[in-house]
Amino acid sequence: MKVIPMIEILQFDFMRNALAAGLLASVLCGIMGSLVVVNRIVFLSGGIAHAAYGGIGLAYYFKWPFLAGTIGFSLSAAMLMAAVTHTVKHRADTIIGVIWALGMAFGIVLIDLTPGYNVDLMSYLFGSILTVPRSDLVVMSVIGVVMTLAVIYYYPALLAMSYDEEFARIRGIPVKRLYFGLIGTLAVSIVLVIQVVGLILVIALLTIPPFIAEKYARSLAQMMIGSSLLGAVFTMTGLWFSYRYNLTSGASIILVAGFGFLLSLVVDKLPFSFAQKDVKSPETGQ
Questions:
Q1: Mapping DSSP to helix (H, G, I), strand (E, B) and coil, where does residue 121 land?
Q2: Per the confidence metrics, is the pTM higher than 0.90?
Q3: What would the DSSP string read from start to end of 191-213?
Q4: Pick from 156, 50, 60, 153: which is nearest to 98 by CA?
Q5: Given 86, 122, 206, 277, which is the most exposed site by the fewest CB atoms within 10 A?
Q6: Domains of the chain, start order
Q7: Cα 168 to Cα 158: distance, rounded to the nearest angstrom
Q8: Degrees (nearest 5) of the Cα angle 82, 103, 22?
Q9: Nearest in space to 29 (alpha carbons), one of 180, 147, 122
Q10: What pLDDT shows up at residue 181?
């Protein structure tokens, strides 16, 4: 069987764009996914991802740019979910589930009502990384840089809030504003990554690399860097498999990530495993 090297794949423009989109998504997911995992808001992230379908429907119905319509709707849904988790925590999962379902239903109905469009719903459910335009790559790059700089600037506050919210409040950190900012940034990141792996699989890319990296990292910053690197490896390997065997790219990336997840569980059982047995923050001691 002939082995196709990565350099041969990169001779095509669409594959170069796909690789760039995958690497940018890996950085976004590495940073935001680490915060999602340590703050235990995976379900909320899933709610945002599925509610984003309402934004997709709005963009198609009113003929808006995909990113503008989807980001606007997702931010609105995310702020509503953030408010719910702060005010009625005991019912937060139920209300998030309702917003999740209504967002998807709203988007599907709007797409049905859009005249003259035969939208391929699968491309949004499972991603269309091979068709990401260069203009979206520019947007992803700009947002990625802004997000990274914001996380660096607020890193001490995010660290305190993530591992001990009460301690953060005592230190005078505006926890509520910081939390809303985190959820808003997460919503934007999810919309960007939807183009790569789809709204169904985006949560896997947000959680699998951070889960693996957390066991070997000694700080939240190391976890973010490790998650980004793992995401890049999963993305490049998944793209190669999708090209080699003519498979759906987003699903291939997630299958590779899933294999990495299972492999990490096996490695944890080995006597020479270097995984951290205590997954609490070594920076705070919490």
A1: helix
A2: no
A3: HHHHHHH-TTTHHHHHHHHHHHH
A4: 50
A5: 277
A6: 6-268 (1.10.3470.10)
A7: 9
A8: 80
A9: 147
A10: 95
